[in-house]
Q: What sequence folds into this?
């Protein structure tokens, strides 16, 4: 289960960040992967990983945003100023010039893993 | 062709209206517009002058949009009085020496307050009530005054008395005639009015003629009356009528009336056809109009005469009036005294409620000629329209003034008015104009409608009618304002609340499956989380609910700009023991939290990291604190004053009641936050009238005010019920809050909710007090359930390892968020601003 836009990224190593049950359905957590803060979300449709950094508030908070969908596209709303981000692509719905990084993520044996190069 | 000069002397309400109208019809093409403005500021809203005392600034009152005159090339001689008109040379000469030639001249000098020739009338401490400067002088003097007297019990005098009373003075009104407002009301009405005004705390003396003002050390000490009696006072305001400012006209030989006023014809021309006069300085067919609406009509007519087609003429105006005093309604319109031959009168007096209503009907009984309303003028707008538009009366005209019985009252509503009906008399806007604007611009809110049409922007008396019209037009257009929560639910919040209750739906997932689509979003999730909490009061961090909560609710704290949180424990009624205060201080010190007093009488500890929250709360709960719900759309604080326990004015124990109220409704989730306050007497130190529900002590019990708020659009709370015992008070609050929770929209505060509630305050009273919907028992039972199932959310969370597991920044590391930085200011830690942050980062990376 890897989201489309990150398929091209080469993964040399999968880092386990937590058990799947540690992420409540339709919510997120923040994982420390090497030196990076990555927000990992779990929805009925799948698992997604984007930057935890919110470029609007300049705070590391996106994992604490509300998860939902816009016309079927999974999204998260920043808890500070409520901008919406596409979980599949990292794009900001409210300001298309803002783009977050997305990261390879998968569930293996009930473990959530983020891929690094 | 060179432009001609059009000079306006006087930049008051009417002078400005004239310029505005002229510009509107394109006068700047052919005319240079020039005006002399004696006052130090451009035209302002004199009608709402008293607003200056309730906090409106000179800028708020201004009628001239900044830059408006510049933009249209109007030359203004500000603070310069025109002293002479030279009609032969066609020149105006000013106090500061300007000489301006005119082709047409408009005199709009208004009037001055008449001060009766009483000995001592110029003593220090005497005032008039006409300009902003007058008010500034009054309020400065009032600071060292205890008693104030208004001479004159007319419309203006009473307004002025109200202002004195609001400044905290013991206030008297002295009226020469045997009753108040002698020009507008008859003896019966005058008596009722007197009772009402006295009930406001103003003492009324009628049939009193002042003979002397006695001074001590050059300042007012007392007034002596013709009957030998005396009245001690610190200041006196004269409001004994107005006199036209016609001196400049008189001196240049224009015809003026025997008792003053520049004589004009129906084109608003004076005896010199090149000179016009408009507003309060003008005398038309022996009449001076001391109201703004006729002045505006003259301004429009004169502008059209001089710069436009000049088809319209002035044929007199209606002198209908409504007193703007808070709390006492008085209105009179048309032939209020029944002077038309053959006129018949119907009247209803209710001395218990303090209302007097009289209608004057023509000989045929078909048309309304005029009327008088004291104590309750809610039907004024309608009645005025019925009389002005000659609408045929129902068979029993008294039905129009009988108290409305549920459903049975006869009303001739806006729908029955012709399009030509003048709805806003201040700005002359007709029903046709308003309907056209609504249709042309698809207007759906009253604010926009007022802006587009200017209706309701004068004295505001017509706003209820304008609102009715808007609703009616929207209904006609089949415009049901769509009120869906979001793309996931085709229902309003109110509908969803009912569905949750009726179908006993306990979770978001169930509701979404039965009535929604998709996955939900940041709009519907918290709204439904709140509905579920209001209905069932399950813990919001239970697994079924936790992912619905905004981050504030999800972590039971308020998120700040850097992603840390603030912690606000409950301090009911603002009362805190020294020991508890010390404990709070120790927690703040030990966790390095920035500490500040909130506006809600409690203490805010800021800068707590998400991973610190449980440890902080462990300590706070041990010290006896509980969650303050500052993070929730829930009851926030119930502020209180010290009340009868300490205060020398207190009549009830406001602090104890505030604690009772706060502990009863703590944790109650609502469509928006709820605030409350309790004051121990009428001085209102706790500012209860700015709250969603506020309580003020009286000698007999408690007055309950509802639906106020501060913030961007402050609105005063309105009185729901008076002199309640505590049990009834709590019962009414239970019903009120539950009714609001059940029917309001998402994020709609009580004030906005009330503004949109059909039937308004009367309807709310009927629901809460008279139980007209028969739901009071249910509402009370629902509240009882809330009260019974209350738990401190933090206590509950600390006892549950599963809930606590979420309180970490990283799922895979105990480390705190490494991006957080602090700088010190005034001995406390705060987040760095962006420029400081760069410096700190540079140091860190070295
Ligand atoms: C407290 C108060 C409450 C009121 N409430 C109501 C109400 O509820 N409803 C209602 O209809 N009316 C009300 N009125 C009356 C209303 O304000 C007047 O009818 C209206 O202001 C008249 O407008 P005007 O332009 O004729 O006079 P003004 O507004 O008085 O303007 C005249 C201006 O001309 C200036 N001026 C005079 N002589 C010269 C000169 N020689 N050179 C240069 N400038 C000069 C004056 O300084 C003044 O600024 C109220 C008035 C007051 C004082
Ligand atoms: C949409 C508008 C508003 C927003 C977004 C807002 C935001 C906030 C926030 C975030 C806090 C918590 C501060 C903290 O974390 O310590 C707060 C507290 C407070 N706000 Fe506002 N506020 C709004 C409107 C108002 C209004 C209208 C008032 C009153 C007139 C008000 C008065 C207060 C008070 C008194 C507190 C402290 C409350 C307490 O003791 O719990 N706020 N506000
Ligand atoms: S409201 Fe009344 S009782 Fe309370 S502090 Fe003020 S003066 Fe005292
Ligand atoms: S007034 Fe503005 S800055 Fe101050 S707390 Fe409220 S929302 Fe924040």
A:
């Amino acid at each position: 289960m890897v989201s489309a836009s990150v398929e091209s990224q080469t993964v040399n190593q999968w880092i386990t960040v937590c058990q799947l049950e540690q992420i409540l359905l339709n919510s997120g957590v923040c994982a420390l992967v090497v030196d990076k803060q990555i927000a990992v979300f779990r929805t009925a449709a799948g698992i997604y990983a984007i930057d935890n950094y919110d470029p609007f508030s300049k705070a590391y908070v996106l994992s604490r945003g509300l998860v939902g969908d816009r016309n079927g596209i999974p999204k998260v709303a920043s808890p500070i100023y409520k901008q919406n981000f596409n979980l599949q692509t990292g794009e900001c719905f409210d300001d298309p010039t803002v783009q977050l990084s997305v990261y390879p993520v998968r569930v293996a044996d009930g473990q959530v893993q983020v891929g690094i190069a | 062709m060179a432009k001609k000069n059009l000079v306006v002397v006087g930049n008051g309400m009417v002078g400005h209206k004239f310029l505005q109208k002229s510009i509107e019809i394109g006068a700047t093409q052919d005319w240079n517009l020039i005006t002399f403005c004696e006052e130090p500021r451009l035209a302002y809203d004199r009608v709402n002058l008293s607003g200056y005392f309730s906090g409106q600034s000179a800028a708020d009152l201004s009628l001239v949009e900044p830059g408006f005159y510049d933009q249209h090339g109007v030359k203004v001689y500000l603070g310069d009085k025109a002293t002479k008109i030279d009609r032969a040379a066609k020149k105006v000469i000013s106090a500061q020496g300007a000489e301006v030639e005119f082709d047409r001249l408009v005199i709009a000098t208004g009037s001055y307050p008449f001060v009766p020739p009483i000995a001592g009338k110029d003593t220090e401490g005497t005032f008039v009530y006409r300009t902003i400067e007058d008010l500034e002088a009054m309020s400065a003097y009032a600071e060292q005054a205890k008693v104030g007297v208004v001479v004159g019990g007319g419309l203006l005098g009473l307004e002025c008395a109200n202002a004195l009373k609001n400044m905290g003075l013991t206030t008297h009104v002295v009226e020469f005639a045997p009753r108040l407002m002698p020009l507008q009301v008859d003896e019966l009405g005058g008596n009722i009015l007197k009772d009402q005004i006295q009930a406001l705390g103003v003492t009324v003396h009628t049939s009193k003629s002042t003979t002397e003002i006695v001074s001590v050390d050059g300042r007012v000490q007392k007034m002596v009356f013709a009957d030998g009696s005396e009245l001690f006072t610190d200041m006196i305001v004269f409001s004994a009528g107005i006199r036209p400012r016609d001196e400049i006209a008189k001196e240049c030989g224009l015809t003026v009336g025997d008792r003053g006023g520049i004589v004009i014809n129906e084109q608003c021309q004076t005896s010199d056809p090149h000179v016009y006069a408009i507003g309060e300085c003008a005398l038309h067919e022996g009449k001076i109009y001391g109201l703004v609406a006729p002045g505006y009509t003259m301004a429009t007519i004169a502008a059209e005469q001089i710069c436009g087609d000049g088809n319209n003429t002035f044929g007199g105006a209606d002198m209908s009036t409504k007193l703007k005093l808070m709390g006492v309604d008085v209105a009179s319109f048309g032939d209020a005294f029944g002077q038309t031959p053959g006129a018949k009168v119907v009247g209803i007096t209710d001395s218990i409620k303090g209302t007097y209503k009289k209608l004057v009907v023509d000989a045929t009984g078909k048309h309304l000629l005029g009327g008088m309303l004291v104590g309750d003028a809610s039907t004024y707008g309608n009645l005025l329209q019925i009389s002005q538009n000659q609408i045929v009366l129902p068979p029993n005209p008294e039905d129009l003034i009988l108290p409305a019985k549920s459903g049975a009252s006869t009303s001739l509503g806006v729908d029955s008015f012709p399009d030509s009906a003048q709805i806003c008399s201040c700005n002359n806007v007709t029903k046709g104009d308003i309907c056209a604007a609504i249709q042309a611009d698809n207007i759906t809110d009253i604010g926009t409608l007022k802006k587009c049409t200017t209706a309701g922007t004068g004295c505001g008396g017509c706003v209820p009618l304008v609102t009715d019209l808007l609703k009616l037009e929207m209904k006609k257009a089949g415009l049901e304002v769509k009120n869906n929560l979001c793309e996931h639910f085709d229902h309003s919040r109110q509908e969803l609340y009912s569905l949750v209750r009726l179908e006993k739906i306990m979770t978001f997932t169930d509701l979404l499956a039965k009535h929604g689509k998709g996955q939900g979003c940041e709009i519907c999730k918290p709204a439904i989380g709140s509905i579920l909490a209001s209905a069932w009061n399950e813990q919001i961090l239970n697994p079924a609910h936790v992912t619905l909560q905004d981050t504030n609710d999800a972590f039971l704290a308020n998120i700040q700009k850097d992603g840390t949180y603030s912690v606000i424990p409950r301090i009911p009624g603002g009362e805190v023991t020294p020991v508890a205060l010390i404990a709070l201080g120790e927690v703040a010190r030990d966790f390095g939290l920035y500490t500040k007093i909130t506006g809600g009488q409690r203490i805010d500890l800021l800068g707590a990291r998400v991973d610190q929250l449980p440890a902080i709360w462990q300590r706070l709960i041990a010290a006896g604190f509980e969650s303050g719900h500052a993070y929730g759309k829930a009851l926030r604080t119930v502020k209180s004053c010290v009340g009868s326990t300490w205060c020398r004015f207190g009549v009830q124990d406001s602090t104890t009641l505030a604690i009772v109220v706060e502990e009863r409704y703590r944790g109650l989730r609502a469509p928006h936050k709820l605030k409350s306050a309790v004051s121990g007497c009428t001085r209102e130190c706790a500012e209860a009238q700015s709250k969603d529900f506020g309580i003020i002590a009286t000698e007999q019990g408690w007055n309950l005010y509802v639906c106020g708020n501060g913030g961007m659009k402050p609105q005063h709370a309105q009185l729901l019920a008076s002199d309640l015992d505590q049990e009834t008070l709590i019962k009414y609050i239970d019903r009120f809050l539950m009714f609001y929770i059940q029917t309001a929209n998402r994020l709609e505060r009580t004030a906005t909710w009330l503004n949109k509630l059909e039937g308004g305050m009367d309807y709310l009273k009927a629901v809460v007090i008279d139980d007209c919907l028969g739901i009071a028992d249910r509402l009370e039972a629902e509240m009882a359930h809330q009260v019974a199932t209350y738990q401190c959310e933090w206590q509950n969370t600390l006892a549950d390892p599963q809930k606590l597991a979420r309180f970490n920044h990283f799922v895979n590391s105990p480390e705190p968020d490494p991006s957080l930085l602090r700088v010190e200011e005034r001995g406390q830690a705060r987040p760095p601003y962006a420029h400081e942050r760069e410096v700190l980062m540079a140091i860190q990376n070295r």
